[in-house]
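Blinded run. Sample ID left blank on purpose so nobody reads anything into the name before looking at the predicted structure. Input follows.
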Amino acid sequence: MLKKFWGWYDAHRRLNLAVASALFTLQLVHLYWLTTNVVFAKAFGRSFFNPTEFLETLLLLVDYTEIPALISVSLVYINKLRKTFDLKSMLYLIFLNSQWLHIFWITDEFVVEHFTGHTGPDIFPLWIAWLAIMVDYLELPVIYDTVKELIKVLRQGNIEAALETLKDND
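Blinded prediction complete.
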């Protein structure tokens, strides 16, 4: 069954990579909010982005795309690793899956509460809130690498299509 799945996955690599890249790139919206609203508020004493209620709802919806993004991008790196082991793919897979700790262990609500002082008991020390934020930023090199891989695959696809056209004309 796994062999069949990976066969399908490889046959549709371009589509799978495009979906994974699109979902994961959406996380840049979340990281923008985190940086300008939460981190800057703590570091500089003021937020540089105060979203309206409507924008907060959109941010929440984007945040919910993180789970399918993590699964789809993990499949990209698992697929690479099953073909050939390389340290970068393994490291990125670890970066990706450290996000599960962030999602289920330390929520963004906890981070905001801890930094702003609004509601909730001080269950964890402040350094854990900073750790949660640092874990979130581990997505950046993986987002870059995934989008770079998509661009590479799309370019190869154009070359392959052009070669096929030439071959058909012979």
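Unblinding after everyone has recorded impressions. The chain has one domain: 2-169.
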